[in-house]
Amino acid sequence: MPLTQGWEYRWGDSPFGTDGAPRWAAGSDDPGWQEAPGPLNPPGRGSHDNLWLRIALPDGEWREPVLFISSINLIAEAYLGGKVVYRHGQFDGDGKGRFAGWTWHSIALSEGIPGKLLYLRLFSDYKDIGLWGEVSIMEQADVLPRILKSTRGDLIVSAFCLLLAALAALMVPLQRESLHFGSISLFALSAGTMVLAESDASQLLLARPLLWDYLAALGYFSLPIAMALMLEHWFPTKGTRILRAIWLGHLGYAIAAVGLSLAGVVSLADTFPVFDALLLTSLILLTGILVLHHRTLTTNQRLVVSSYAVFAIFLVVDMLVAHGFVDWYMVPVHLGALAFTLAMVIISLRHYVSSQRELTHLNAFLEREIAERTHELAVLAEQEGQRATQLALENRKTHELGNLIDRLQRTGSIDIALDIIAGELPTLLSPLAGAFYRPAVSNDRLLFEHSWPDGVHFPAILEDVPKPAETELQNGSLVTPSQHIPIMLRQPIVRSAYRQQQDANASAPLWYLPLDVPRPHRESRRLAVLVLQPGESLDERPSQREQTRRFIERGLSRVALVLAGILLQDELATLSYQDGLTGLHNRRYFDELMAHEAAISLRKGNPLSLVMIDIDHFKHFNDRFGHAAGDVVLTGVGRLLAGSFREIDVVCRLGGEEFVVLLPGATADEAKARIVDMTNALARAAFHHEGESLGTISVSCGVASFPHHGNDPRGLLAQADRALYRAKAAGRARIEIGD
Q1: Which of 332, 356, 380 is the last residue of a domain?
Q2: 433-439 and 75-80 beta bridge pairing
Q3: In whole angstroms, what is the distance from residue 290 CA to residue 231 CA?
Q4: Domain count, the chain
């Protein structure tokens, strides 16, 4: 039977008789009692913290009647027949007391209660005073079933959330996205703890209401922290600073509120209204961020937003009920927590499955690539072994060739390797006369580089040279140079003896032996061309001529294999340290170089400057002109940067539209002067894409220098980054010097 009507109240505290009993509970018809609209917050409180309530108990057929109250603000004593029948909290001599926790109450009433007056003495320095929630008379046997029935959903949701929190916590050290799983674990733990602590069933587990209120506070205060962390993960480019400020602010409040409450400085009850205002503000900010970017959301992000909206509505309605803006009823906050948690689980599982699928495909691709590369290397190694066996039977030339190959294998550069080959060819191929040609950079011509013996002259340029065909695997072997058709030089050799030979035997072709590095499934790369004149002695002995030619071809094949390895190392090194779009060095190269230069500057005390450069409004530029035009700008800016500094200065692309320049030996002023020249050149530059003018580009720059801006050059990047942010905050298109 609900007791919502018939309440009377009076403010203040009752005087006590000599027997220690309060006189207001004696049942007299004192005119100080006034009719109350209900048992919560009667009118005229003012500065009063003490309140007395009374009600005449109604008729009913009760066997073991109890008065059930959802919650009391804040401590109370119940009197029936002038005697204390229930006490929650402890009153001191001044009629005051400390907060004892919000919990449900079951006050046992004696038989024959109809018409008797029940008195309640209350104290609250909280914003509310009185009885909150349900106030009813019921049978004592019905209390436990009612609690279990009303909290069944809370217990299920709480158990699910706590189990999910444990599983997510176990995933933290096992997954790359540890922060994401950590935020899910924190949210599930907070929601589960809050739902369990605020449910009536918690007192059945442990009758410590204040302890449960502290746990509920920790869970409630941690919810926006976890929500902001999860939204920061799912919306990494949208309002990151606001989201970070939200969860940091709530974290600070949670620590301060619980800590001060435990220290007795403030009452735990007083921390909830302040937090509700802070939470409402945070929900508005989060909602604003999501509304601003709702058009760009993915399916997963829309699911996150929908579940967030449901949970936020439940939280706001619960606040309105708690603060009396809406009539009391049980708000199923646990359903909102369950919806948000399930959404996070579904999205995380989808993301996890997608990531695992991608990793599986990537692993399969890498395994195929490794198998192919292993097979290629095995083929090349097998060919090398076969040729090594054959060359072991050769004469002094074989030994010389072996020495040459040894030198090449110790070489880490393809240009140095070719220089070594050009220098060793006269000795290796003597007594044959010949010339060594290298491809021109701008066309298909071959440029003369070296000839032997002394006094023999070959043409400066070879033209109409066939391009190397695509390398193919035939019966497990690479195409050999013998499968190339010899060609005739368009210009004769300029030497009388050889001219006479050419005149006498004009149809005898010279040997054209290309030094092509095979690259499976791609066009071979021509590194050089060897032109040889067999000579009269070989012309007279065709079998020896053919044997000599094949021996030279086999030797060139071995050299080509070694060069292929060197070229592969060069390509891998280039890919490892070079940005694919701009051709500048990448972040990995910068990190290694920065550590090296910082150590040198720190040891020798030399100046070292660092400049962070960011293209202004690049995202808006991409949105307007497209990413292809953005790539044109990135490439052009990278080319301009590469040509704006000294040879010892290093320009790298950190990523996106950010570049960094490392200037060894340069002071901050010198670095700024070079940056000023660069920005002036950039202001004059014009960018075009597909016939369309892209306008001018500006950059923001942050400069930091050692030792001017600190005692440790390793901190230059962070200082320059802060200076860059100041430049951007000040309006962009400017240069800022570090603090």
Answers
A1: 356
A2: unpaired
A3: 10
A4: 4
Sheet holding 34-35, edge to edge: 34-35, 8-11, 50-56, 117-123, 75-80, 83-88
Is 250 buried (19+), middle (13-18) or exposed (0-12) by CB count in 10 A? buried
Q: List b or e across 91-105, with b for residues whose CB sees 16 or more CB atoms inside 10 angstroms.
A: beeebebebbbbbbb
CA distance 556 to 516: 9
Element (DSSP H or E) covering residue 84: strand 83-88
Q: What is the pLDDT of residues 218-249, one digit of tens each?
A: 888 888 888 788 777 766 665 678 888 888 88
Are 162 and 188 within 8 A, CB to CB? yes
* DSSP code, position 260: H
In this structure, are residues 257 and 271 in contact, taking their beta carbons and an 8 Å threshold? Answer: yes
The pTM score is 0.45
pLDDT in tens, 84-135: 899 998 998 888 998 888 888 999 887 667 778 899 999 998 888 999 888 9
Q: What percent of the chain has pLDDT over 90?
A: 22
Q: What are phi and psi for residue 553, nearest 5 degrees? A: -65, -40
Which amino acid, 653?
R
Structural domain of 669? 587-737
Q: Are residues 419 and 568 in the same domain?
A: yes
CATH number, position 682: 3.30.70.270
Q: Which amino acid is at 576?
A: S
**Region of 236 on the Ramachandran plot (φ > 0 left; ψ -120 to 50 alpha; else beta):** alpha
CATH code of residue 420:
3.30.450
Query: Do residue 592 and residue 570 come from a single domain?
Result: no
Residues listed for the chain: 739
Assess whether 195 and 293 both reside in one domain. Answer: yes
Asked whether residue 569 falls in the same domain as residue 616, the answer is no
For residue 241, count other CB atoms closer than 10 A to its CB.
8
Q: Is-contact 235 293, C-beta < 8 A?
A: yes
Q: Are residue 477 and residue 350 in the same domain, yes or no?
A: no
Do 33 and 54 lie in a common domain?
yes
Domain contains 500: yes
CATH code of the domain in which 283 resides: 1.20.1070
Query: Do residues 506 and 434 share a domain?
Result: yes
User: At 86, which CATH number?
Assistant: 2.60.120
* Distances from the Cα of 645 to the Cα of 534, 568, 671, 681, 687, angstroms: 52, 30, 9, 12, 21
For residues 490-521, one letter each, b for 16 or more C-beta atoms within 10 angstroms of the residue's C-beta and e for the rest, the string is eeebebeebeebbeeeeeeebbbbbbbbbbbe
Q: Could you tell me the CA-to-CA distances from 201 to 60, 139, 143, 422 in Å, in that order?
A: 28, 18, 11, 90
Q: Which residues contact 44 (CB under 8 A, 6 or more apart)?
A: 11
Same domain, 446 and 483: yes
